[in-house]
Amino acid sequence: MWIFLRQIPKGSTRRKLNKFVSKGLRPSWMLFSFPSRAKVKRCEILEILNTETKTIEYHGLVQIDPSKAALKVVERVNGGRLQGKFIEVRKYVHRSGHRDRRALFSERDDRQELRRQDRRRDRLRSKVLHAPEIERALRIL
């Protein structure tokens, strides 16, 4: 399962995200650390550029296996601090035009994406940054 970390600090790296999320994998009440089957499989940083205002946001995506552990991590680290900033953490939901439930109730025959009209921020461009790329992007800004 993927979890979403909203508005992470500008200088965040995948290593820092991994460390932040890994804290939620082990209960704080345990004195000794026992091996856990839950693990962070992948960390990514998203750079989102608003083309209208020229502002950039950074968000984190972390894949945790198994899903049950990911839900516990969301509970444990939501509202935690990453580089001094409080971070909102939630389950990531991928939206696709092919999975739009409103299409079942629509009488239209065309298969266009129905959500396109109600997107709140349609002038966004996003890309996934890898560790070396984020350092380069930060130097440019």
What would your notes on this structure say?
The chain has a five-stranded antiparallel beta sheet with strand order 6-1-3-2-7. It has a two-stranded antiparallel ribbon with strand order 4-5. The chain has one domain: Alpha-Beta Plaits (2-Layer Sandwich), CATH 3.30.70. A hairpin with a 4-residue loop joins strand 2 and strand 3. 16% of the residues are buried. The chain starts with a strand and ends with a helix. 24% of the residues lie in helices and 30% in strands. It has helices spanning 14-22, 67-77, 102-105, 131-140; strands at 2-6, 39-50, 55-65, 81-82, 85-86, 88-91, 124-129. By secondary structure, the chain is α+β, with helices and mostly antiparallel strands. Mean pLDDT is 78; it is low at 137-141. The protein is globular.
Q: Record the strand order, biggest sheet.
A: 6-1-3-2-7
Low-confidence segments, given as residue ranges, are 137-141
Give the CATH class.
Alpha Beta
- What is the makeup of the main sheet? 5 strands, antiparallel
The CATH topology turns out to be: Alpha-Beta Plaits
The class by helix and strand makeup works out as: alpha+beta
Number of helices: 4
Computed Rg:
18 Å
Name the average pLDDT: 78
Q: N- to C-terminal separation? A: 32 Å
Number of separate domains? 1
